[in-house]
Predict the 3D structure of the following.
Amino acid sequence: MRVLGIETSCDETGVAVYDTARPGPDGLRAHAVYSQIALHAEYGGVVPELASRDHVRKLLPLIRQTLGEAGLSTADLDGVAYTAGPGLVGALLVGAGVARSLAWALDVPAIGVHHMEGHLLAPLLEDPDLEPPFVALLVSGGHTQLVGVDAIGRYRLLGETLDDAAGEAFDKTAKLMGLPYPGGPQLAKLAETGRPGTFKFARPMTDRPGLDFSFSGLKTQVLLAWRDSDKADSTKADIARGFEDAVVDTLAIKCQRALDAAGCDTLVVAGGVGANKRLREKLHAIADKRGGRVCFPRPSLCTDNGAMIAFAGALRLQAGQNSGREVHVQPRWDMASLPAVPPATTA
């Protein structure tokens, strides 16, 4: 089954083709992502209306490009998957409208995919032997969640952020320190040159039981440290390192607790912050110590992309699930409400 995947939940236009006849990473026939970073840099953040308009401008050319790279035409497609939520409503409607129209014209099924399920399943795209049950850390600019995965489509929320997501905290902290947009990757790069331990910030909510997160207070600590500092480049790097270490340690501590609570030694990490080098090193060390494993998608599949949507959609389309003909999106969408996928269809 050849499935076209379309991702337009925020500021990246992603398109991919996944072929279920080719297991594992070979099934990804082609994928492409167009980022709107330059468009939104002037404003220091995503402007929803501009994001929607740019998706309109780029989506059809990107579909043609991706199909060409896959050596396919629209007539070769057996299904279409698109991000139906959560996300910016205007951006979601662009992808959903194109996907539903294409599916109707080709007389093939279409399915709306949950954006975070796409992230969660991305590591399975690259490792066909990875199967539930496992614990997933979904960590991005909009979400920080620990999820118990009993099966594909059977998810239990174990803990989540009570305020800022980890990626959002990276971006806001970078902005207050004067780093260019997008701030998160810039801050992580700066932290590579910082001295560990020079600035010691709290590991929020690790001094009490539970699996929830909070990063707003950590952001305030950094603001105060930056305000009272000499603003030298070396100091900026030291503060960035202290902040990154605090976030990474907090995520790692909570992941260990979640694994203990679930009685599981397999951790899956997905989302944009999953590309952070220090987080990867820390979680790999924890997994080795436990005799377990931690699985990440390749860095290019950590951020928003069409490959994860094509793959997640293919699993559900193979199971006979599809969406109605109406163009429907859900800017807010609880992943626990998703239907389960029968195990036989995930092999």
